[in-house]
Structures are given as structure tokens and as C-alpha cells.
Amino acid sequence: MNEVLKKYEDRMKKSLAALEDGFSGLRTGRASAALFDKIRVDAYGTKTPIKELANISIPEARLVVIQPWDKALIGEIEKAIRTSELSLNPSNDGKVIRIIIPPLTGDRRKELVKQAKGEAEQARVAVRNIRRDGNEEFKKLCKDGGITEDEEGKSSAELQKLTDRYIGSIDKAAKDKEKEILEV
Length: 184
What we know:
4 helices
């Protein structure tokens, strides 16, 4: 029975990890290399992540410096950043790309908080769906004679504890991200 619970816990862990990954791409008022994780650059005939084409450094709180390993890609990297949904305006000097992260407006902060809350709710729904799948599997095992009704009840209770723990983690991650976004 533990292996079945473990399977569902692993799925819940993946939902939480996906949420945290999604949060890393939400722009706050501070510079972060994670902002560029989802941006793909047309390089050598394929869409490649920036971090595989350049060194990304954060010398100051509101400045990102991207230094391509191949200087011929500087224009493509700049174009990919400019056309991304981050609304950033990169500039290059032929060797490096500099991006000044402007402070967020009040309206933009509200939009980002709303987006973060939406992503958190999707993660909660995913965890609840995993719980439902687990409970259905326990009922099927009980019906097929694989486990007793008592074991089904205990397993469902354990699964509920896991669900509560992961939803708590999602809520904490959402609160932390909201605080980070609203920080001036």
C-alpha cells in the first residue's frame, strides 16, 4: 500500500515543483537569471534556452548582463528578449547585452499577483485531482479484494494528509511570491 501512496505523493511533488517553476518566471522588481529560463533563441537552426548560449549575471539589483559565448548570436538573443512577454528593453554594445529591470507599476504588480494566484489555484486543483485518482484506486483495490475496507479507509486518510500538506505548501509558496511581487 505504501508504494501506491508513494506514487501519488510523487505526483503531488511534481505539481508543487511545476508551480515553483512557473513562479520563477514571474517578474518581480528585482533582476533574476530565472526570468530568462523560458525564453528560446533561434540558434543554429533550433530553439535554444538563453542559459545554454550565454552567461547571465546580475551585477546589481536591477541590472542583468548577458554575455553570449558566440558573439554572432547577440542579435538573436536581444530579439528573443525584446519579443518575449517580459516587456524588457535590452541594449547591446556588440559584446554583452544589458537589461535594466524597471520598477513595477502598481497595476502591473496587481496583474502579477493575480497571475500567481491563478497558477497556485491550478496547482491546488492538480493536487486534489491526484487525491481523487488515489481514492479511486483504493476503492478499486478494495472491490477487487486486494485490500480490506479498513485498509482502504486508512489509505484514504493518509492520502488526505498528503493532500493537506501539499496544499499548505502551495499556499505558502503563493503567499511568499505575492509578498515578493508587492515588495517595493
